[in-house]
Write a structure and sequence with these properties.
It is a single chain. The protein is an alpha/beta fold and 1224 residues long. It has six domains: 177 residues, 3-Layer(aba) Sandwich (Rossmann fold); 174 residues, Rossmann fold; 175 residues, no CATH class; 180 residues, Rossmann fold, CATH 3.40.50; 177 residues, Rossmann fold (3-Layer(aba) Sandwich), CATH 3.40.50; 171 residues, 3-Layer(aba) Sandwich (Rossmann fold), CATH 3.40.50. It is built from 52 helices and 39 strands. An eight-stranded mixed beta sheet has the order 28-27-26-29-30-31-32-39, sandwiched between helices. Strands 15-14-13-16-17-18-19 form a seven-stranded parallel beta sheet. Helix 28 runs parallel beside helix 30, helix 41 runs parallel beside helix 43 and helix 46 crosses helix 51. It starts with a helix and ends with a strand.
């Protein structure tokens, strides 16, 4: 049931991309949901997962009943708050009946939510004497099944189940849909090599053929019947076949089975497998001579489809859904008659050619059962039910016409929304009573009968009079007056532009706006801020780049948009798991009365256009966002443009003001210079604008940039039946293909082709015109849009009033009024409600910065932490919500101060730096990257807590050198690393190494350690980044010693901390040999002193070549290091053990040749672009230096270096389930 539900959900999400999906999980089972959460994360961001919670129901029968009532109130409120169109339950019989943590379903959320459930079978009702003998289980089952008649849609997994639902629960046939089901893709016919490689069947039936049975001793599975039939058939089969029973059988059951087989005389031929994995089951299906499935009743019978997918010959009982899977009676038997089953088995195994025919039948039949077909049937059922429900008339409020307050600008306000509202309100008034609230009553040029117009300051005194409130929002300051009311008086918000930055931006306080945008958009906003210079210019960059809409909508009761594009922009911009409900309604356009409008000839006469001219128009502002230059060039090249009989009229004002003061405007003017057949009309009044549409033969509307607005020009062309050309961008991409000519781009070549096609074919233009008018009548029907608008506003408002804390508390108080209730129970209810509300917040990536926060020592590990933190805070996907933290003995604390100090957060965020305890939320992920190995004991409790609420812990493994080379490290380091790694192996979700070589080494160590990793633990790798400053820093001012060394001819360089494993001692040995043999070369060490190197430092200090041909410079500024890299004959990286080797990338960046010890990780990074020597060998290094001096260096410029962003992307994608190198 679980696998069926997940497979169906995955396929529904895959094929239903035009819909929004959310997943509702039970918080009580999060600790058992790791695999499920991982699968959901692959489908979509976990921000689309919400939780429901309730006080524990695991009490005695009577207390459980009371608590389950409370649980249902909380669960339904959670669902109603999200306000889905469809609420689908994978199974109404959730959990472990009356004994588990799952609260039984008692009732459903209130309409108009469509209530749906998968119906598997009703076998307990068909065999109550077998399954419902426990009175508590019987009451639970009958009470829960009583919900089934309330379903609006029942998704039956077979026709047998559909008929049972109709018969047992009197469900109308149209409300129950048979969607069947399928099986996972790994159930397939194996190649001969695959079958031979696994050959699990050899363990159970070595050298012998076998009949396969899958199922346990449950009464209806009919194992006894199968045994008896096998015993009868064996008389004819003469011990040639074994009966293989696949079931994780208990010891008592096994004993009873052996005793029965012995009584039947077939004990040596009957084998039980115990538990087998899916992979092993596939092998058994492939190897079986015959698969027999004899249940007395089935809801579907997935094992039959599994067997067929694997090509096995199948025989099934002649009952229930099995007759639907196996529709050929020749391959069915009477399951209640062992003799009939035996006859079928013997015939299949002895009749010549029968098994081959059965295998062919299995392959053919299995292909009919696919998850895509099942998912499509489910979606169709929901869509049809939704369409039927949406078609109902607008509901009145308590028997009267709804009274609605609308905030909107009206003419004379110079905004398209003002004109839209003035046109829309008369149509709306047929379905509701409206009162309008504006910013300046004196400026309003429009009057409406029976629609009072008020200044918005009057609204707080009248708010209680209205059944609903509507806010019309566009991307301009004309709507700014509405924002305080949206916060104080939530209503339905109509978004006319998906991007609303100019609405909410206050030039007087750019920093406040910047902080709000970072809070709303996260990384994408922060990246813009950090790259900018602050103030007004940065704020305007945010306005241009980001939707900036969430702050205007997050308190709303619902949102109406005019396109799927705008819907998707709002959803992507929301950083909350449960954003307001969004309804897509086409933008209203009043249909012109065709009888009253002028004729084409009259329009041309009024505009002084010759009647015989071919007129091509483009409507709207002539601006850089409209693809005007491409249109002009396309027209010039077209047949019409070359004929002299056509005109291109750009009906609108040229950008750049009166003087056309913009580069684009000047370019347009140059493009049309000398062309009398191309004209720009300038701004025209609506009456003249309409005349141009009527006079036109072809319209062309191109866009190079969209803010999510619905094109009024395209709507006007459609409503007038004018054939037109457009390019698919933003909302216009949603138009059906038959209504106009759609271009994939607005390149001149595409424009030429489309113009030539339409200009030369009047019949084609007429066909597009008719299709456009049909589309308008069906989809853009003004009256239908107005009615749907009012219905949506009323429904979203009424819905919001039926859920929330007040409603929940009243409902629960009413349920419990006659029963004693403890303060503890009240507190449990409150905690559950708060946890449900907090689950709306999207999951976070918690980044451990405990060590680096105490002090950045500029080590390689800390560089990684610093760069990953910066990348996370500026990530291009707002769904990534990074949060730095530090471990303390008391728990986790916020570490915003570190993110601020390292430049990951913007300067304006300093006001929002948080301190104090950090609470872990459901689905949070922890990334432990800071080398805090010694704090493993402090980590255990937070990781355990995270595991209980669906989260996951990951470790970034820089290296495990203390475990691989214990002789090089102190005891406490080895113990700390071992404890840290063991904790993550046993409790974590994944470990990511910094190289493939590191991952190989980690896997090898794990397999030899005796530690059993947590099932499902993943290993991956992400090579570290290499973002270096410009090579220009190599010419920046440097110290005198560096300047002197940079002029030396044979300069060999080592960069890195002085540690025993880095190999400085034997490198110096090698150069002593070279100097002794007369080689004139200079050796320079750069790096601070590490641990256990006192003796080595004394050697440096007392060396006879010190200051001559040997230099230890200690820590040096970046400019000095860059100059030395650029000047070096070669950079030596001589480690005898290493986790990565960033100096390799640094040297290659500055063009320095490389001499590398032959560690696997160095070979992985350097490839063929370096010269190698044996790690630890002074003689081999000396030989490598001589070889380079004699034959020249190996160029390092071909080394591929990922950026830190590349590294971070791979890490973040690994956390989401990708890039798995090995899984345990």
């Amino acid at each position: 049931m679980g696998r069926y539900s997940l497979s169906l959900a995955k396929e529904i999400v895959r094929i239903g991309s035009e819909h929004d999906f959310m997943f509702l999980l039970n918080r009580h089972y999060l600790d058992k949901s790791a695999d499920l959460i991982s699968e959901i994360a692959k489908l979509d961001d976990l921000g689309n997962v919400i939780l429901h919670d309730y006080p524990s129901v695991q009490y005695d029968w009577h207390e459980r009943q009371r608590r389950e009532q409370v649980a249902n109130v909380l669960r339904n409120d959670r669902i109603e708050t999200v306000s889905p169109d469809v609420y689908h339950i994978s199974s109404v019989f959730e959990g472990e009946s009356v004994y588990g943590a799952a609260a039984a379903f008692i009732d459903f959320p209130k309409p108009p939510i469509i209530r749906s459930a998968t119906l598997y079978d009703f076998i307990p009702l068909l065999y109550p004497d077998k399954y419902l003998t426990d009175w508590q289980v019987a009451l639970w089952y009958k009470r829960t099944s009583s919900l089934i008649p309330q379903l609006d849609v029942g998704l039956a997994i077979s026709d047998a189940t559909k008929k049972d639902a109709e018969r047992l629960f009197h469900m109308r046939p149209e409300r129950v849909v048979n969607i069947f089901g399928s099986v996972a893709d790994h159930f397939r016919i194996l190649s001969a090599a695959e079958a031979h490689r696994g050959a699990i069947w050899r363990r159970f039936a070595p050298g012998q053929k076998f009949i396969l049975y899958v199922g346990g001793p449950d009464f209806r599975k009919n194992l006894d019947g199968a045994l008896e039939a096998f015993a009868i058939a064996n008389k004819e089969l003469a011990d040639k076949y074994k009966l293989l029973i696949v079931y994780d059988i208990k010891s008592a059951e096994a004993l009873a089975l052996r005793e029965k087989a012995a009584r039947l005389g077939v004990a040596p031929l009957v084998v039980t497998t115990g538990f087998v994995s899916d992979e092993e089951l596939v092998e058994l299906y492939n190897a079986a001579s015959l698969f027999v499935f004899p249940p007395l009743y089935e809801g579907l019978g997935l094992p039959v489809i599994e067997a067929m997918r694997c090509g096995a010959p199948v025989l099934v009982g002649d009952n229930s859904s099995l007759t639907e899977i196996v529709d050929d009676p020749a391959y069915r038997f009477d399951a209640e008659k062992p003799a009939d089953m035996a006859k079928s088995m013997a015939r299949a195994l002895t009749k010549e050619g029968e098994l081959q025919r059965m295998r062919a039948y299995s392959r053919e039949r299995a292909a009919l059962f696919t998850w895509e077909k099942s998912a499509r049937r489910a979606l169709d059922a929901w869509e049809e039910t939704y369409a039927a429900r949406s078609g109902r008339k607008t509901s009145s409020v308590a028997g009267r016409v709804p009274r609605i307050a609308m905030f909107t600008p009206l003419p004379s306000a110079k905004t398209g929304v003002a004109d839209y509202s003035a046109e829309f309100l008369p149509a709306l008034s047929k379905f509701a009573s409206f009162e309008i609230f504006v910013d300046d009553v004196a400026e309003v040029e429009t009057n409406f009968d029976d629609m009072p117009i008020w200044h918005h300051s009057q609204f707080p005194f009248k708010a209680h009079l209205y059944d609903a409130i509507v806010y019309q929002l566009g991307n301009s300051p004309f709507h700014h007056y509405m924002l305080p009311y949206i916060e104080s008086f939530p209503g339905v918000v109509v978004i006319h532009d998906a991007y609303l930055g100019y609405l909410s931006y206050d030039p007087g306080d750019p920093d406040a706006f910047i902080r709000r945008m970072i809070q709303e958009h996260g990384g994408p906003a922060r990246a813009i801020v950090l790259a900018g210079e602050g103030g007004d210019r940065t704020a305007r960059a945010l306005v241009d780049a980001l939707p900036c809409s969430a702050t205007s909508t997050h308190r709303s009761l619902g949102v109406i948009v005019h396109s799927r594009f705008a819907h998707d922009v709002l959803v992507a911009a929301s950083r909350r798991a449960a954003a307001p409900k969004i309804v897509v309604l086409p933008q209203y356009r009043a249909g012109a009365a065709r009888k009253s409008r002028p004729s084409r000839a009259e329009a041309r006469e009024a505009l002084a256009i010759p009647p015989e001219a071919l007129v091509i128009i483009s409507l709207g502002h002539v601006a850089h966002t409209k693809g005007v230059l491409e249109l002009i060039e396309g027209f010039k090249r077209s047949i019409a443009g070359r004929s002299g009989d056509a005109r291109l009229l750009l009906v609108g004002e040229l950008e750049g003001g009166v003087n056309h003061d913009s580069p684009y405007a000047r370019e347009v003017l140059r493009a049309i210079a000398g062309r009398s057949d191309i004209q720009i009309t300038g701004y025209v009044e609506k009456e003249i604008y309409d005349l141009y549409i009527v006079a036109a033969d072809i319209g062309v509307q191109l866009r190079t940039l969209t803010r999510g607005e619905t094109s009024g020009a395209i709507l006007n062309l459609l409503m007038n039946g004018a054939p037109f050309i457009y390019n698919r961008m933003g909302p216009s991409a949603e138009l059906p293909a038959q209504v106009a000519v759609a271009l994939d781009s607005c390149q001149p070549e595409s424009v030429v082709e489309a113009l030539d096609a339409l200009a030369g074919d009047p019949a084609l233009r007429q066909a597009y015109s008719k299709a456009a008018l049909r589309y308008c009548a069906e989809v853009l029907n003004p009256e239908k849009i107005a009615e749907k608008f009012v219905r949506s506003v009323v429904a979203m408002t009424e819905h919001a009033e039926t859920c929330g804390p007040k409603t929940v508390s009243k409902t629960i108080a009413r349920l419990l009024r006659d029963a004693p209730i403890t303060q503890e129970f009240v507190q449990e209810i409150a905690r559950s409600y708060v946890r449900q509300e907090r689950s709306e917040l999207a999951p976070r990536l918690l980044i451990d910065v405990t060590h680096i926060r105490e002090g950045d020592l500029k080590t390689g590990v800390q560089r990684v932490v610093r760069e990953i933190t910066r990348a996370a805070y500026t990530w291009d996907d707002a769904r990534l919500r990074p949060q730095t933290f530090a471990y303390t003995e008391a728990g986790l604390i916020y570490a915003d101060d570190y993110a601020q100090s390292c430049g990951a957060r913007a300067p304006v965020e300093v006001e929002n730096v948080r301190f104090g305890v950090l609470d872990i939320r459901p689905f949070d992920k922890i990334l432990m990257a800071d080398g805090t190995w010694h704090l493993a004991d402090w980590m255990r409790e937070p990781i355990d807590r995270l595991d209980q609420i669906g989260g996951a812990a990951f470790g970034l493994v820089h290296d495990i050198l203390p475990l691989q080379h214990p002789d090089l490290f102190l005891d406490h380091v080895k113990i700390s690393v071992a404890n840290w790694l063991t904790l993550l192996l046993e409790k974590g979700a994944g470990l990511i190494c910094t190289s493939q070589s590191g991952a190989d080494g980690l896997i090898e160590w794990i397999e030899g350690s005796g530690i059993t990793p947590r099932p499902g633990l993943r290993i991956g790798y992400a090579r570290l980044g290499a973002d270096f400053a410009s090579k220009a820093q190599a010419s920046a001012p440097v110290t005198a010693v560096t300047a002197g060394l940079a002029d030396r001819e044979n300069l060999f360089l080592m960069v890195g901390t002085i540690e025993p494993r880095k190999g400085h001692d034997y490198v110096l040995d090698a150069f002593e040999r070279l100097w002794a043999s007369g080689v004139d070369a200079t050796l320079v060490f750069v790096g601070k002193a590490g641990w256990s190197v006192d003796e080595l430092l004394r050697r440096f200090d007392s060396h006879e070549e010190k200051g001559k041909r040997f230099f230890y410079l200690g820590f040096m500024p970046e400019a000095d290091v860059a100059r030395l890299y650029q000047s070096a004959a070669a950079t030596i990286v001589a480690s005898i053990a290493e986790g990565f080797g960033l100096p390799i990338y640094e040297a290659a960046h500055f063009g320095s040749p490389l001499l590398l010890s032959d560690l696997p990780v160095f070979a992985e990074l350097g490839g063929e672009h370096a010269r190698y020597f044996s790690a630890g060998s002074a003689s081999q290094l000396a030989a490598a230096v001589r070889e380079q001096l004699a034959s020249g260096p190996t160029p390092s410029k071909g080394i591929a270096m990922p950026s830190w962003n590349d590294c971070a992307r791979r890490i973040f994608e690994f956390l989401d389930g990708k890039h798995t190198y090995r899984q345990f």
